[in-house]
Amino acid sequence: MRLVDYLDKGASLGPDRPCLTADGRSRSYRDVRRLADRVAAALVARGVSPGASVAILSANDPDAFTCVFGISRAGAVWCPVNPRAEAPENRELLDLFDCSVLIFQSAFTDLVERIRGQLPKVATYVCLDGEVPWALGWERFLALGDGRQPVDAGYRDDLAMIVGTGGTTGRPKGVMLTGRNLETMTALTLMGYPFRGRPVYLALAPLTHAAGVLCFPVLAHGGEIVIMRTPDVHRFLALIPAHGVTHTFLPPTLIYMVLGAPELDRTELGSLQCFWYGAAPMSVARLREALSRIGPVMAQLFGQTEAPMMISMLPPAEHFRSDGTVAVGRLASAGRPAPLVTVGIMGPAGELLPAGERGEIVVRSSLVMAGYYKNPAATAEASRFGWHHTGDIGYLDDDGYLFIVDRAKDMIITGGFNVYSIEVEQALMQHPDVRDCAVLGLPDDKWGERVVAVVQAQPGRTVDRAALIAFVKERIGSVKAPKQVEIWDELPRSKVGKVIKPDIRTRLVASATGPGRHP
Would you state the pLDDT for residue 170? Predict the structure, then answer.
């Protein structure tokens, strides 16, 4: 399916039903289709042909998201550009993706102004909500297609979107996702998680990432997408009962904020069927709290840009045993491999390892990307031995549950022992004074690497370093316990809420002789 086919499917189930809602105003499927068709016609009028790349730089916005379907109707390729990324990274991605059109919100005019002189391939700039001298205004852009024959490039199982991997670990790459990749993801979502009646999906997380592609299964059911323009945990909680929200997605860091909201326990959450969490490891202690206070609706998903969302899944029911008690041992897992996905654990020579042994998580599925755009070397590296390599270290247990223990690049070797940062982070997160944390290894003359923890305290609490180290030792032993603890007000995070360990490492190295060192 093309991306626009999900909109068309939803419209066939009720053209006058609400499709996109923001700021209390709903647009019907008929309205959204009409606007998407005008976008498609305007793109064609500007010379956009099937297969061309069109970028969108916007915060969560119904007009911007409607453009996704107009791009698809014209047979072009959607290139989401993250508004929280730095200007040089966005310039590099826009140039790499060969974008000929950039649609942007006026809030990002300064960012675009800084880089447009270095974007010779971009022929057309369109401002969604303002007047910019060097860009087409929204209404002027749409008028370009008025009076033309309806545009529909027809069914093409070709490239649907190119997504940047981000530049925190080197030069960014462009992940090529086809219609088939996203159709597989959608099918797995509908297969693996509860969907009763017409869903109502609340999108707080950026639509440029996981929150965006999760809209497609909702549209296929004729559901409503309630768009939050800016992150606000208190408003998020208010919107759930106000709209009868059935589905939503948040990364763990925002779920921790929800759990800290004083109004949570008095908010009516009975409409929820599925509260997805993912994009980063979640504390087992906080997950148990969420199951108790939010309800038996928590639903994990594990994927990556190259294999979107659904490599493995832990639906709400699998958080519990058959007798209704919490299946504590499963909560640290990423669930079981999705029905249309084969997962293996691979050793360094390409050998598949048995249950219980740790190695790199590898995947085979129509979920896996077509490759990296204009980067055959990186594509070949990621597909060694005929499997897609995730870069994550993990193992499968005897029941088929997948446990992720670290990113391959983050494993710490201290005193000759392998220490996996996620295991240490899980232990730290059990402490009541710890709100969030990150663990990594730094060079050490004695140990080779020492385990270092950077901790963010709960609001109004203080963390005693020595007591925290002792707390971790009691749970996972002295080898894995941090030898250095730093207390920071905030951890650096990416635009989707992931902790950026390279930034932490850089800061720690720069202040290696500072306070907080524990031999």
Answer: 56
| pTM for the model | 0.85
pLDDT grade for 515, boundaries at 50, 70 and 90? very low
**Cα–Cα distance, 390 to 388 (Å, whole number):** 6
φ and ψ at residue 113, rounded to 5 degrees:
-60, -35
- Residue type at 303? G
pLDDT at position 156 is 67
| Amino acid in the structure at residue 209 | H
Instruction: Indicate whether 209 pLDDT > 80.
Output: no
Of how many residues is the chain composed? 519
- DSSP of 50-88, one letter per residue? TT-EEEEE-SS-HHHHHHHHHHHHTT-EEEEE-TTS-HH
Alpha carbon distance 376, 379 (integer Å): 5
Query: What is the distance between the alpha carbons of residues 308 and 306, in angstroms, rounded to a whole number?
Result: 6
Name the amino acid, one letter, at 388. H
> Which amino acid makes up residue 218?
V
114 vs 422: which has the higher pLDDT: 114
pLDDT of residue 495: 62
Q: Which helix (H) or strand (E) holds 220?
A: helix 215-220
184 exposure class (CB count in 10 Å sphere: 0-12, 13-18, 19+): buried
Q: Which of 508, 518, 466 has the alpha carbon at shortest distance from 488?
A: 508
- In whole angstroms, what is the distance from residue 408 CA to residue 410 CA? 6
